[in-house]
Write a structure and sequence with these properties.
heterotrimer, A mainly alpha, B mainly alpha, C alpha/beta, A: mainly alpha, 71% helix, C: 5-stranded mixed β-sheet, 3-stranded antiparallel β-sheet, 12 helices, 10 strands, 14% strand
Chain lengths: 234, 253, 322
């Protein structure tokens, strides 16, 4: 019989409270929110950076193709394939080149947004009424001035719509970034945590809240940038 | 230069993994090669079941709602909400509330697959030319007949577009099914200690190929589903505007 | 003289009985901390200042707890500690150790023997000391030092829910043979390839289960609870075993060898770190009995506490860190 030195507190285990039974426990949630702060922050960074880079690249492509219609087909083709390849697969296909980490995740997330944003920017620009462009030319605007002073502002609603779609879906994909070694809320969904109701509800709610928040922010920016649409609505 | 060779090397290892069985990383079992066939079949079983059930549920609902031209907010919102929920969170929610295993994963995947199909069916029916429908009414066709013989065929291409989007989403999401207790091609990806990086890459290649293949195949179905006259007219319109964009829905994985 | 001896004997036996009597099973109330003497506190040795060591861990609860305990204890002793937990399974941790990514990680004696040193499960030593001696030799050949083993033995085993075991009428692993076609066995994905898991059950017990279902190591008990599997891979220090809902089947053919944990350290690094590391490790391991490990594991797995918090609770409750 061994004398047990230094007993550790042994807790009662025969029954079990809310947490022990993997339930939905508001108390636990309130006391453990700090577990979600870092993953949430990582997710926000991944999403914002990826959408921003995707926006820049896709817009550049769209402006390039604006006056060269023949480019549209090939660009759609390439971005379409990038769009179809599942992000999780993309994380691992990129690993031999970019290793594990945020870079791999961002590349895959950016690749996904390209089709959506390209499509919306191009449609937006195409959708500018002929009268507006005619009036602009009549005023003697150069091609560049026409583009930035007439076409882009009028295309803004469509462009913003594309940004909103891109950011909400990127939030969802960034949840998987954990598997690429890039952190994010995905780490809260692995192992036994996936069956713990309180955890799943909190992590899931944070994802949805982030998506909704980004959606509303972009909508707000849109309203600010296009005051004429507001006037029409009233 | 060395990096390029290294990339080909690992990628090449991944491709080799798909075709040749070898011993697992820790020894003791055979992985790769023909095992990939079994995993692919598991993956397709999950995806097919979810897609099938989703179509059976979403198409009739979309047809009815689109025909009566009501609840458009609901039909469109369901897709917006579906976009905001990450697939992993959806899978986790049902793993927590229903449990682990094949059936529960199929349930979660079905919920994922419904929104694009529902929304596209609704829009497809809604956009059928009003005059055509009125003419059918005038001819004395009942509502059910109109849906079946006029609206459905004309909406078929859009519906197929929705199914196409859902198919790619579901195939992509089925990759994380092992986290919720169902086997799929994600199993090698999530278990590097058994399959090694070559297994992870090999499985990733197969998943990507599956998704692209489904997209291409259903794209062909979509094309075939468009009545010839409508297609010619649409192609003509396409060359002038960019409605080709509208055929795709939005993917979520 | 004889009367004094008798008195001493009586005194010792009484103290021993008292200690046993105070060791309740899981049904004791929360906060039962026994009269046990606190362990000697870890001293912050200025000789350790500035010396850096990287501790790693594998990817399951007990490894997280052990890694954190060692890391926090060494930090209390004055070392600069870096951590790389959640490396993965033993193959990955082993590689990280060999590559120098980490300086040390806790590994189980028989796991090292069967996974790294090519010892067949049937030939593995069946005693804790024999197992440790063999593992120590194997590690030394690779240039690593396996420090003293822990008191607890986290053995591989198989188990079932009490309900399932009584309905099938099984008590030992051999009892499973007539029922094997009804049994779905769930284990970690590695179990498939391990001789101290599925492979051993197939070879030594000649068992052919209806199906083997790979599940995340952390989901094994849930799988048994849901009825998805009748038999699961268990470890004898699993927190869930303290709930009394499960029963570990008797290993009548002695397939599973002992698995005491040892902190495996890069030998060259160890000598540069000084005697402090050995001292701290020995101090810290004194309180690590099977019962204590079950308790610590259940705090993470069942109470959902963070491993690093549970590690610091252990150090505080035992008096190692005051």
């Amino acid at each position: 019989m061994i004398l047990e030195l230094a007993q550790v507190e042994i807790h009662r285990r025969s029954t079990g409270g809310c947490v022990q039974n993997d339930g939905f426990c508001p108390d636990w949630i309130v006391h453990n929110l700090d577990r979600y702060v870092d993953p949430f922050r990582e997710q926000v960074v991944l999403v914002v950076v990826s959408v921003a880079i995707g926006f820049v690249i896709a817009s550049a492509l769209a402006l390039l193709a604006h006056r060269r219609r023949w480019l549209v087909g090939p660009i759609i083709g390439v971005t379409g394939v990038l769009y179809t390849i599942p992000s999780l697969a993309a994380f691992f296909l990129l690993q031999p080149i970019t290793g594990r980490g945020s870079l791999t995740a961002i590349i895959a997330l950016v690749a996904y947004t390209l089709l959506i944003i390209f499509r919306n920017v191009t449609t937006g620009l195409r959708g500018v009424p002929a009268e507006a462009t005619d009036a602009g030319r009549g005023l003697g605007l150069t091609d560049n001035q026409l583009l930035w002073k007439v076409e882009v502002p009028l295309a803004l609603p469509e462009i913003m719509a594309g940004l909103r779609i891109a950011s909400t879906t990127t939030v969802g994909l960034a949840t998987l970034a954990f598997f690429a070694g890039a952190g994010g809320l995905g780490e809260r969904f692995v192992g036994s945590q996936i069956v713990f109701k309180s955890n799943v509800v909190v992590a899931g709610a944070l994802c949805v809240l982030l998506a909704v928040a980004l959606d509303l922010i972009i909508l707000l920016v849109q309203r600010l940038l296009t005051p004429w649409t507001r006037a029409r609505a009233t | 230069m060395h990096t390029t060779l290294a990339f080909l090397g690992q990628f090449g290892d991944g491709i080799d993994f798909i075709f040749h069985q070898r011993e697992s990383r820790g020894g003791g079992v055979q992985v790769g090669g023909s095992e990939m066939l079994d995993l692919t079949w598991q993956h397709l079983k999950l995806s097919g079941a979810a897609l099938g059930i989703a179509t059976l549920v979403a198409v009739p609902v979309g047809l009815v709602l689109g025909h009566i031209r009501r609840f458009s907010f609901l039909a469109i919102s369901v897709s917006n909400i579906g976009r905001a929920v990450p697939t992993l969170a959806l899978l986790a929610f049902f793993a927590a509330y229903l449990g682990l295993g094949f059936g529960n994963v199929v349930f979660a995947l079905t919920l994922l697959a419904i929104p694009p199909i529902l929304t596209n069916t609704y829009i497809g029916v809604y956009q059928v030319d009003r005059d055509t429908v009125d003419a059918a009414h005038g001819m004395g066709m009942s509502d059910a007949q109109i849906v079946r013989r006029v609206e459905l065929p004309l909406a078929m291409a859009t519906i197929a577009g929705g199914v196409r989007t859902s198919a790619v989403n579901v195939i992509a999401t089925a990759t994380i099914a092992p986290l919720a207790g169902a086997t799929s091609l994600g199993f090698p990806i999530l278990n590097a200690q058994i399959y090694g990086p070559e297994g992870q890459i090999g499985a990733a290649i197969v998943v990507a190929v599956l998704a692209v293949a489904a997209d291409v195949l259903l794209g062909l179905v979509q094309r075939a589903a468009t009545p010839r006259g409508v297609r010619l007219e649409a192609e003509d319109r396409e060359r002038r505007s960019f409605t080709m964009f509208r055929k795709r829905g939005v993917q979520t994985t | 003289m004889r009367r004094n001896l008798l008195a001493v004997l009586v005194l010792v036996s009484l103290t021993a009985f008292a200690a046993c009597g105070s060791d309740d099973n899981g049904d004791s109330n929360k906060g039962e901390s026994s009269s046990g003497t606190k362990l000697a506190a870890i001293k912050n040795d200025p000789a350790n200042k500035g010396k850096s060591v990287t501790i790693g861990s594998k990817n399951f609860t007990e490894e997280f707890i052990l890694g954190n305990i060692y890391a926090q204890a060494l930090k209390a002793a004055g070392y600069t500690v870096k951590t790389q937990f959640n490396l993965g399974s033993e193959q990955i941790a082993h590689k990280a150790l060999q590559k120098g990514q980490i300086d040390a990680y806790p590994e189980y004696t028989s796991t090292a023997l069967t996974s790294f040193f090519n010892v067949k499960i049937a030939d593995a030593p069946k005693t804790a000391s024999g197992s440790y001696a063999a593992a120590k030799k194997g590690w030394a050949k690779e240039g690593f030092t396996a420090l003293a083993p822990t008191p607890f033995n986290d053995a591989q085993a198989v188990g079932m829910t009490k309900k399932e075991a009584s309905s099938l009428g099984v008590k030992t692993i051999s009892d499973l043979k007539p029922k094997e076609s009804q049994i779905v066995f769930a284990g970690s994905p590695e179990c498939k390839q391990r001789v101290d898991c599925l492979l051993g059950l197939q070879q030594t017990y000649k068992l052919k289960f209806k199906k083997f279902v790979p599940v995340d190591i952390a989901q094994r008990y849930k799988t048994a609870d849901d009825g998805q599997a009748q038999l699961i891979e268990v470890f004898t220090t699993d927190g869930q075993l303290a709930t009394g809902k499960y029963v570990v089947l008797v290993d009548d053919k002695h397939l599973f060898p002992p698995y005491n944990a040892t902190l495996v350290v890069n030998s060259k690094k160890l000598s540069s770190l000084g005697p402090g590391v050995r001292t701290v490790v020995n101090q810290v391991q004194k309180g690590m009995t099977t019962r204590v490990m079950q308790e610590l594991n259940s705090r993470v797995d069942i109470d959902k506490q963070e491993p690093k918090d549970v590690a610091s609770e252990y150090l505080k409750e035992t008096g190692l860190v005051r």
